[in-house]
Automatic annotation (TrEMBL):
Protein source organism: Ephemerocybe angulata
InterPro entries: FAD-bd_PCMH, FAD-bd_PCMH-like_sf, FAD-bd_PCMH_sub2, FAD-linked_Oxidoreductase, Oxid_FAD_bind_N
Entries under SUPFAM superfamilies matching the protein: FAD-binding/transporter-associated domain-like (SSF56176)
Coiled-coil region(s): none
Residues annotated as domain FAD-binding PCMH-type: 83-254
Signal peptide: 1-27
Family of this protein: Belongs to the oxygen-dependent FAD-linked oxidoreductase family.
Domain of life assignment: Eukaryota
Keywords assigned: FAD, Flavoprotein, Oxidoreductase, Signal
Keyword Oxidoreductase on entry: yes
Name used for this protein in its record: FAD-binding PCMH-type domain-containing protein
C-alpha cells in the first residue's frame, strides 16, 4: 500500500492528466479510422457467423441485427474516437463460458478484438475496433457481498455507482472510481478512489480474478497460486494479459447512509480548483478532488476540510 503523501502525489498527477485528456477526447475528431484489410474482414465475418451458430443472435450481433445493442456498443464509448468504429460483430456474453467461446473463435481466425466494460477508457482503440469483434460486458453486471470472507465479487459490466448502491445496505464499500458511470476496467489501470488516501489504489484491494486467456482457457489468479505472475501483471497491465470476467475485492466498512453524519468542510468549484491545486503543487491532505464530468470543466469540485 502506498504511503499517504505518495498516493497524494500520484493522485495530483492523475488529476492534471485527466484535465488534459478531457480536452483531447472532447474535441471533434480530425482523423478517420484506418479501414481494415479485406482478409481481416473476411476472417472476422467467418468468426462472427460461427459464434452466432454457437451462442445465438442475441449474444452475437452484427450491423444488420434488429436489436439496438450492436449500435449502442459501437457508438456508446465515452471517447469519441472509439465511437467511430464499425465492428464486424459485437459479443454480449452472459457468463465466463461465453467469453471462452468467443475467445476461441477469435484465436482460431486471428481476428482483431476489443473489450468494453464501462466504455470509459480515454485511449483511442481501447474499447472498440474496426472490422473486428467487440466483447461487451453490458449483460454481466452482478455484485455480491460475502460477510464471512468480507469480500465483494463483481462481474466486469457493473458500474461503480451501481455497485455502491447495491452494497450500501450492508454498510460496506469498494475502492471504486470517483464517478458513478466508470466501469471495472479502472481496477486494471490502478484506480483512484475517494478512499485512496487511507487505503491506496483500487487494485490494492484485489484478492482474486477469473481471467480468460487468449487461447480461451480460463484461470483464477491470486497472489499466492500458480498464476501469481498473472495476478501481478493485471495490476496496471489493463487487458493485455487476458480478459477478467470476475473480480473479488476486499471491502471498506463505511457504514450505512443512516449512520453517516454531515460534511462540515469547504467546497471550491469551477476553475478555482485548477488554480488552487497548481498553487499548492499537490492535492491537499484530506481533500477530495472531483474530476470533470460530462465533458464540462465547470463541474470540477475540490472538497477540503479544513478550508484551504
Amino acid at each position: 500500500m502506498l504511503r499517504p503523501h505518495l498516493y497524494q502525489l500520484v493522485s495530483f498527477h492523475f488529476f492534471l492528466l485527466h484535465l488534459l485528456l478531457s480536452f483531447l477526447v472532447t474535441a471533434t475528431p480530425q482523423q478517420q479510422h484506418h479501414n481494415p484489410a479485406p482478409h481481416d474482414i473476411n476472417a472476422a465475418q467467418r468468426a462472427c457467423a460461427e459464434l452466432q451458430t454457437q451462442l445465438g443472435g442475441s449474444r452475437i450481433q452484427t450491423p444488420s441485427s434488429p436489436n439496438p445493442e450492436y449500435r449502442n456498443v459501437a457508438t456508446g464509448a465515452w471517447n469519441r474516437f472509439n465511437a467511430l468504429s464499425e465492428p464486424a460483430c459485437v459479443a454480449l456474453p452472459l457468463s465466463s463460458g461465453d467469453v471462452q467461446v468467443v475467445m476461441k473463435s477469435i484465436f482460431k481466425y486471428s481476428v482483431k478484438y476489443a473489450v468494453q466494460a464501462g466504455g470509459h477508457s480515454a485511449g483511442a482503440g481501447w474499447g472498440s475496433v474496426d472490422g473486428g469483434i467487440v466483447i461487451s460486458f453490458m449483460n454481466m453486471r452482478s455484485v455480491s457481498y460475502d460477510p464471512v470472507r468480507d469480500v465483494v465479487t463483481l462481474q466486469p459490466g457493473i458500474r461503480w455507482g451501481e455497485a455502491l448502491q447495491e452494497l450500501e445496505p450492508s454498510g460496506v464499500a469498494v475502492l471504486g472510481g470517483r464517478l458513478g458511470n466508470i466501469g471495472t476496467g479502472l481496477l486494471l489501470g490502478g484506480g483512484l478512489s475517494y478512499l485512496g488516501n487511507a487505503h491506496g489504489f483500487s487494485v490494492d484491494a484485489l484478492e482474486e480474478a477469473d481471467v480468460v486467456l487468449v487461447s480461451g482457457e480460463m484461470v483464477t489468479a491470486t497472489a499466492t497460486n500458480r498464476y501469481s505472475d498473472l495476478f501481478k501483471a493485471l495490476k496496471g497491465g489493463a487487458n493485455r494479459f487476458g480478459i477478467v470476467t470476475r473480480y473479488v475485492v476486499r471491502t471498506v466498512h463505511v457504514g450505512r447512509s443512516t449512520e453517516k453524519g454531515f460534511y462540515g468542510g469547504t467546497i471550491y468549484a469551477g476553475t478555482v480548483v485548477v488554480v488552487l491545486v497548481l498553487r499548492l503543487g499537490r492535492t491537499p491532505p484530506g481533500a477530495i478532488v472531483i474530476l470533470p464530468s460530462q465533458r464540462d470543466m465547470k463541474t470540477s469540485l475540490l472538497i477540503s476540510s479544513p478550508p484551504l
